[in-house]
Amino acid sequence: MKQVYIINENHPQLLLFFAGWAADETPFKQYRPKDMDYMICYDYRTLDFDYSIFNRYRQVNVVAWSMGVWMGSLILSQVPRDKVFSLAFNGTTYPIDNLEGIPVNTFQATLDGLTPATLQKFLRRMCKDSNAYKAFMEVTPRRDFDEIKEELRLIQERYFDLFGDANNKSYDKEKEDKYEANIEKYNYEYNYAFIGKNDRIFPPENMEMNFCDLIDCHPVLTDNAHYDESMFRFLLQDMWEMTASEFRYHVKTINIE
């Protein structure tokens, strides 16, 4: 995993952003959270992570998007909660799952059919409309195609190794015990989960299933697409200028439930 500082000015707080699959810092480097250092994580071909950042800062604020919601949960479940405030956007903690993530067959079809042309179709589906897609193409990630295809394959491989394949109905007690232990080990609840009802990558109803019955998580239904620049501007910049009461009020205004 790559960890790239966008702002590194020894602030007491860090904004830690777990981006999605195939991402890099390009679409997100223009944001400037107030009075914080700012780090972007991407390239999930490995789980390597420098945990020392949690000792370096008084407070670590986390935003996780898409496949980064799962990756963030693997990392955050291993650190104390008392100095972390976390928000998820358009992703789940079980990202390859028929009920709580991207359906297994859909994920497999995406991986099997991935070409430069189908990648562009995927990126188009992330965006709300042609104007949003055109704007995203101005800041699209600059990564090698073979690298991001390998990343998607390794995400699937690692997820199935940790939590099992929902389409594999064969029973193996040793594997089932391992999966149960990993579910407990990597269990994590975000403070807020923003669920875009116009998401065409993660089914909104599956995101609701993932978040809506949790004890400590506050799910918020919005009208956002999977990639939505206005939401990133809020999550990665504007909200950090708000007081806690202003943030709660804003969340109520964008909740379409």
From TrEMBL:
Q: Which SUPFAM superfamilies match?
A: alpha/beta-Hydrolases (SSF53474)
Domain of life, per lineage: Bacteria
Q: What is this protein called?
A: DUF452 family protein
Q: What organism does the UniProt record list as the source?
A: Bacteroides stercoris
